[in-house]
Amino acid sequence: MPVLAQFMAALRAGAIEVVDLTAPLSPQTPVIQLPEPFGNTSPFSLTEISRYDERGPAWYWNNITTGEHTGTHFDAPVHWATGRDGLDVSQVPPAHLIAPAVVLDFSAQAAGDPDFLLEVEHIKAWEAEHGPLPDRGWLLYRTGWDARSGSQREFLNADEAGPHTPGVSPDCARWLALESPLLGFGVETVGTDAGAAHSFDPPFPCHAALLGAGKYGLTQLQNLSRLPATGSVVIAGPLPILAGSGSPCRALALVERA
Ligand code: MN
After folding, report:
1. What's the pTM?
2. CB-CB contact of 22 with 247 (8 Å)
3. Per-residue pLDDT tens over the stretch 218-241
4. Cα(171) to centroid(ligand 1), Å
5. CA atoms within 13 A on the CB side of 85
6. 90 within some domain
7. N or C: which end of the chain has fewer CB within 10 A?
């Protein structure tokens, strides 16, 4: 049987499960909040054009308002100053949008310390157990943060010192960007960097290093708990916004079930 026919047969027989990693988009979807004097992103909203009424008797449709970085979204290299000469979101090769993934689960650590940072040693220890990170694949960083996504306040977890959400140390960010074979890094939090990363050296090291190296980010993922540590495939579908820095994104995972 041709390989795509085998694939469809497995999908329909339930031997391959499709897990939706995408957060629902609504005005309640959490968005990042930058302090003055920085600009901020729009939350998601719908503006009705017609709904089976005099404006359109047989049809319902809306305009949408959204930031490129609202909800589950894809960061293109050009999003960061270090990647300014890199790809915009429309230029990401379609073949990069289907890639193998691994899940590293640090939800227990993040539950105890919301400022928990992933270090290279954590990844090396994981590799000793599970094997190498996937070539041209995603590292999906599970922190349990998706459980907070119903509330902007809990999701951003800010106090007077700023937000407290888990992330990556500057050394680990450089390692992911320059030493690892990864295509990109995916998180459950509002961005790929820690909440406190504005105070790191360099600030926002995950954005700076990964996007500067031509790699990608995926944020506000859900349901990583339903993925195996290894062996899943992620399909990420950002919109091809010309010159765009990123895009809201449907992220799906394919998981083989025995
Ligand atoms: Mn982003």
Report:
1. 0.97
2. no
3. 999 999 999 999 999 999 999 999
4. 20
5. 1
6. yes
7. C
